[in-house]
């Protein structure tokens, strides 16, 4: 083993949590940045609250 | 970019509008009952799993040798094992909390959707749709808790398994979040 098991455990765990966090962060970003096309398509006012109109 | 959450939020608002305009009260109650049943089942499952995990965390002698055999790259530690179990348990408590909140919102919506707006101004289409979408958001968060149990469950076998589970979960969720 090149690395100590403790460091491997911490490194891989943080990497996994980073993958999950990054995905959900960009999903949240997608929910707060609404392209005009979507607003026109649904004939709805563009809202920026997550949950109210999540794009 | 369009997400499934956004599309279904709009669909729910249109559904509320249709139900109120056409006075389809029975359909509303039946549909909301189905949503409440789904949330109830998942909330019950989540609390059972989380309490089971807490119980197993207090019995550290059952730390399976099979999980340690698969833990190639990780650090075999009893303390870490308990931390992993509590993390998984917390995730299911989070799911339970969200499912019970969604039941609360769905019950609230099933009442308000049948209240005439001339008797109660707060039962407008926008207000009912907002309550319904709040319920659906908490349902989504509860389901997300269930999905995230995959990488955290695999963490019990070692961090390399967790990484694999995270990548696989994100791949599946990416497709689910962009299709209805």
Describe this structure in words.
- Chain A is an all-alpha fold.
- Chain A has one domain (1-55).
- Helix content of chain A is 64%, strand content 0%.
- With 180 residues, chain B is mainly alpha-helical.
- Chain B has one domain.
- Chain B contains six helices and no strands.
- Chains A and B meet through helix 1 of A and helix 1, helix 5 and helix 6 of B.
Could you give a quick summary of the protein structure above?
The complex is a heterodimer of chains A (55) and B (180). By secondary structure, chain A is an all-alpha fold.
The number of helices of chain A is: 2
Oligomeric assembly: heterodimer
Low-confidence stretches of chain B: none
Tell me the series of helices and strands of chain B, N- to C-terminal. HHHHHH
Helix content of chain A: 55-70%
> Distance between termini of chain B?
13 Å
Task: Tell me the Rg of chain A in angstroms.
Answer: 19 Å
Q: In percent, how much strand structure appears in the residues of chain B?
A: under 5%
Estimated radius of gyration of chain B? 21 Å
Uncertain runs of chain A with pLDDT below 50, 5 residues or more? 47-55
Structural class of chain B: mainly alpha
If you average the pLDDT of chain A, what whole number results? Answer: 68
* Total number of helices of chain B: 6
Largest interface: A-B, 28 and 32 residues
Which features does this protein show?
heterodimer, A: 55 residues, mainly alpha, rod-shaped, disordered C terminus, B: mainly alpha
Question: What is the strand and helix layout of this fold?
Answer:
The complex is a heterodimer of chains A (55) and B (180).
Chain A: H1 5-32, H2 36-42
Chain B: H1 4-22, H2 25-57, H3 65-70, H4 78-112, H5 125-155, H6 159-176
Helix pairs in contact in B: 1-5, 2-4, 2-5, 4-5, 5-6
């Amino acid at each position: 083993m090149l690395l100590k098991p403790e460091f491997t455990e911490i490194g891989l765990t943080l990497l996994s949590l980073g993958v999950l966090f990054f995905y959900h962060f960009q999903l949240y970003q997608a929910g707060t940045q609404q392209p005009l096309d979507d607003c026109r398509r649904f004939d709805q006012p563009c809202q920026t609250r997550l949950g109210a109109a999540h794009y | 970019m369009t997400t499934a959450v956004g599309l279904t939020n709009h669909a729910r608002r249109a559904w509320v509008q249709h139900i109120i305009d056409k006075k389809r009260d029975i359909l509303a109650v039946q549909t909301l009952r189905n949503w409440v049943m789904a949330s109830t089942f998942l909330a019950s499952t989540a609390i059972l799993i989380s309490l089971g995990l807490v119980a197993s965390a207090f019995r550290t002698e059952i730390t399976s040798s099979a999980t340690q055999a698969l833990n190639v790259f990780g650090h075999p530690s009893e303390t870490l094992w308990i931390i992993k179990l509590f993390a998984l348990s917390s995730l299911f408590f989070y799911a339970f909390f969200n499912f019970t909140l969604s039941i609360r919102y769905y019950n609230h919506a099933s009442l308000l959707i049948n209240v005439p707006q001339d008797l109660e101004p707060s039962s407008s289409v926008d207000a009912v749709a907002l309550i319904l979408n709040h319920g659906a958001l908490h349902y989504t968060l509860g389901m997300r808790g269930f999905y995230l149990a995959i990488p955290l469950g695999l963490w019990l076998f070692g961090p390399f398994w967790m990484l694999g589970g995270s990548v696989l979960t994100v791949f599946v969720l990416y497709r689910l979040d962009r299709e209805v």
